[in-house]
Amino acid sequence: xxxxxxxxxxxxxxxxxxxxxxxxxxxxxxxxxxxxxxxxxxxxxxxxxxxxxxxxxxxxxxxxxxxxxxxxxxxxxxxxxxxxxxxxxxxxxxxxxxxxxxxxxxxxxxxxxxxxxxxxxxxxxxxxxxxxxxxxxxxxxxxxxxxxxxxxxxxxxxxxxxxxxxx
Length: 167
What we know:
This protein has helices at residues 2-25, 99-102, 135-159, and strands spanning 27-31, 46-50, 62-65, 76-84, 87-91, 114-122. The protein is of the alpha+beta class and 167 residues long. It is elongated and about 60 Å long.
């Protein structure tokens, strides 16, 4: 019973640490919709976005920007392809032209519109939602079972006496 308690304590502490890290560093997750960033990002992927200083952004970074810079009225996740005096020029990897030329953006992206930079991608995240009914719970149970078993194995291994080599 003690290893199970230890595992649950680890999971709780890890959850608190991850939550605190996200809260204090202004990191959050967002789902990708659309195919404008294909093949880099696919519809249903989850991206982790972090607030960064506008001055640290450079060509090649993937950012999330909001209205009023977004002409669509929605947040846009696209790559920076240029920097001009008025702001950032962006483009979806799967689009033919820049957001500014295509009317996706109202003009160069300014600091007030940048929500953050994509720092991590979790591919195929939405595919889990298409598993048969209750399969998500089974998957979560398997992950928890693996954690518990790994804790039990580790605690058992620590209790076994070390083998003594004969002279």
